[in-house]
Amino acid sequence: MSGEPTDLDGHGAGATKAPSLPPAVDRATFQAELEGLRAREKAHTREGDAIAAARRRLPMVEVDAGVYLTGPHGQLTLLEAFEGRRQLIAYYFMWGTGQPAAEQCEGCTWVASQVGELSYLHSRNITYAVFCQGPYNESTRYRDFMGWGMPWYSALPSLDQLLVGRRLGMFHLVCYLREGDRAFETYWTNGRGVEAMDNSYALMDLTAYGRQEPWEDSPPGWPQQCTITRTADGPPTWAPVPMAEWPGGRPTAQWPRLQAGVPEPRVETGG
User: What's the pTM?
Assistant: First the structure.
């Protein structure tokens, strides 16, 4: 076959009715191209292994194991949040106090939604928990609205101590290690570093069209209208959420729940 972009839907490469397609080739040509990419994938995997090995050799810094969090039974310490395990991974969830579900942090909702089955972490003596940067009573209702089951605490009383040198209110992913009744911070990241929690993007990256976002290096005619956490889909009554720093649209995870009739979490401050 020619290897030219294929027009299976009857639309030319420059048309707007359908996205362009990869070139259609014979099986041998396809396999040869794939094997060339596979070599790069294996090198990428080995480099990731090397970076993980370097991460395991980082020093650690002690943190106050007695700083307070708020949980379902009131106050508890950072040490108690380990649930007796040796390590703790904490995701610091951004929070808009008093805001409805559709206006809570879309990025934090995206990554938190990726973490479901915790037994694999527990089998390695690791606890995972969300440390919300808002009031416990208000934010835990959002957790329930989203159908999440992970441990959820408010870190609001101790953010200054837990996030020393970092921007409060920003999302962070932090790893801790416990030695007896002492706690140490061993790693933290934010920005695209939290993609380590994701599986949806990892799967999208395997597809022909990728994440379909404007920043990606894709061939001409590829769909690139999507954003990290917004969708244009949904009934007309789903009003787009206007935010100057985000494109228009509707939060991907929150809106289907509202459409299905899941009750909006009550907005109450405090706790």
Answer: 0.85
